[in-house]
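Apologies for my clumsy wording, but are you able to produce some protein sequence, whichever is easiest, and the tokens describing how it folds?
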Amino acid sequence: MKKWIGAALALLLVVSLAGCGAASQKPTQVDGDRAPGTTSLTITLPTWTGYGPLFLAKDKGFFAKHGLDVKLTVVQGLAERKQALAGNQVQGMATAQDVQVTLAAAGLPIKVVWALDESAGGDGILAKDDIKSVADLKGKTVALEVGSTSHLFLLTALQQAGLSDQDVKIAQMSAADAGAAFVSGKVDAAVTWEPWLSKAVAQKKGHVLLSSQDLPGIIVDSVSLRSDFVAAHPEAVQGFVAALAEAMDYYKANPDEAAALMAKGLGIEVKEFTDTAQGLHFFDAAGNKAFFGTPEKPGGLYATTEKAAAFYKDQKLIDTAPQAAAVIDPTFVNKL
């Protein structure tokens, strides 16, 4: 399976860079009002509460204020998002930091310029009630998205329990589909996120075996931009992070209105957004400065990145572990 993943990632990158075909899942675009002299930028992301500030920055006009025409394309499948970024159909991606590592490892030049949130209970492993510990997963069928944050989370949990992915049966599907499959009783366990964690418990379908609150520092969401875009449009990138900083300030000052706008952008109910947000720690400008640090004194984001890179390489899911300094660009947040 591991060799297949590496080959698939390599093939995906080659096909994408050659421009052969579009993503199989058509992006859902949220367009901005483009004004003369603005810089266009398209960001792809899946439906996840942590990415709400992007919609807030757009809807409140913070991107436009900084001369940006930002489009947000919602694509659930990771492979499709990678293909779109590699083919320059989009210029950036909001995703988990460990996924940013796989992009860089596949030869896609990116720069992480903003940290959105850290999961503090918003992600986890759902299991049937008779599965009392991670060790009990041995021989069980676990639904997750291979090569994603969910995979890293499971591998970390299994490793701590003295197991590996060879000890479980992995059913490949998106995190959302994994949650649905678990609730419908099709699998023994699933690595997913809210609202599926709460849904499963509320419907008495199982329990949360382990959450990101139990394994802190693993799941961090960030925004990366293609390196060629960063090099060509540094002022636009500065405006991009400034707009997100303003969005976070607005969120703190107007939590109810902001939550409603972000939920609308993500296409989910407000209650679902607010409930899920309780399991997240959002980063504002000060939080980003501390988390990024500087090249001379790196912040926690570097350790998170290096841990993911080392782990994926050890699991032979990537051939080369990219250096955190090559993936992270702290320049822009430190100018806020």
Notes: The chain has two domains: 2-118+219-335, 123-211.
